[in-house]
Amino acid sequence: MKTFSKNGFGTKFIAASTFIFSMSAQVGASELIPAYGLAHDEYAYTDQAGPYGVDTSAVVADCRGLVGTLAKLVLTDPDVQCNESFPYGFKSPVSTNVYYPENIKELDKLPVVNFVGGILSNEGQYTNLVRQWASYGFIVVVSSDFINSWPTMHILGALEVSKLNKDPASPLYGKADLTRTVVAGHSAGGGASILASSLPDAALRLIDPDLKLVGSLPVEPGPLGVGALVRVPTLILTGAADVVVPAFTWPLLWQNGTIKDTPAWFATARNATHFSPVRGNAKNEFAGITTAWLLYAAKSDSNAAGYFVGPDYKLSKDSQFIQSRLNPLRVQRNSVAAALK
Fold it and tell me: Is 80 exceeded by the pLDDT of residue 334?
């Protein structure tokens, strides 16, 4: 008797189902304690907390309502949304969408956040987080092929913004400042962001002559990226309750621990699970500090800089993150970051 597993589809189906069930369990766990702390209260006190409304090219819906999707196998959190890309639907697994301030035509050029999610994730699941960032005056491009482990999707995202920036019919026409690009990612996409931030400038210019990276934001990153090769300022975020990417393993050891030549920060959020980033701001321990990082790295915002620069930097005082000097997962920065003024 033949089964669909022969061509690999069955294996992918089982893996995706396992992922969704584990996601459901951890998403539920993250509801127990709401997000808090300095950065959360300042930047993420409500969903889409920035000064701008947000428009997008994305079409997403409640994961439970998508006909024929694997997400219907479990009762997912109602906050989590999906598009119809495989394995959550039957459209192409490769998708790219942009989020941007709704009054972008009235604004000067905006920095770009190039984001990629986790393995077997769906682009739409990060809607809350990327809308949060766009509301603070960023163009956010989100790309996925549901594997997301290599810089491929970051390259695709950069190409998409470059194309839209040159298209007179696009709302992004002439509005993307590619010289202020931050690569970001969660889980597999976080590891990919470390890989992407290791690319030489000459390679970036092949994508677009103006493309320049000014920062990297790996959140609960996968293991493939090595910190020693990173070329731009980097904030690595981990979760104390994350059993998929344990904070004390590769994020601490060969990612943060080997970044020596460029500024780097490391922080572990109390109570955060691996799926905190797909939640609304009230339950996402990372929403506030990631916003502060983007404002600092891409906009040189003086208030946001206070979370990362100076002897009394606020990240080292934020109660959302482990601070004990005896705990290896405490907030820390390397000597290059400590020397910044």
Answer: yes
The 3-state DSSP class for residue 176 equals: strand
Closest to 122 measured CA to CA, from 157, 82, 78: 82
Interacting residues of 202 by C-beta distance below 8 A, sequence separation 6+ = none
- Please classify residue 206 by burial: count the beta carbons closer than 10 Å to its beta carbon, then call 0-12 exposed, 13-18 middle and 19+ buried: exposed
Is residue 57 predicted with pLDDT exceeding 90? no
End-to-end CA distance of the chain: 68
| Secondary structure percentages of the chain, helix, strand, coil, to 5 | 35, 20, 45
Considering only residues 33 and 81, tell me which one the structure prediction assigns the higher pLDDT.
33
- The domain spans of the chain are 4-338
CA 104 centroid distance within chain = 22
Higher pLDDT, 72 or 187: 187
- For β-strands 176-186 and 110-116, DSSP reports them as parallel
pLDDT (0 to 100) of residue 14? 41
pLDDT at 24: 45
SS3 241: coil
In this structure, what DSSP letter does residue 47 have?
T
- Decide if domain 4-338 falls under CATH 3.40.50.1820: yes
Check residues 88 and 166 and name the one with the higher pLDDT: 166
The pTM (predicted TM-score) of the whole model is: 0.85
Q: Tokens 């769906």, residue?
A: 122
Q: How far is CA 53 from the centre of its chain?
A: 20
* Helix segments in 166-315, DSSP class H: 188-196, 201-207, 287-299, 302-305
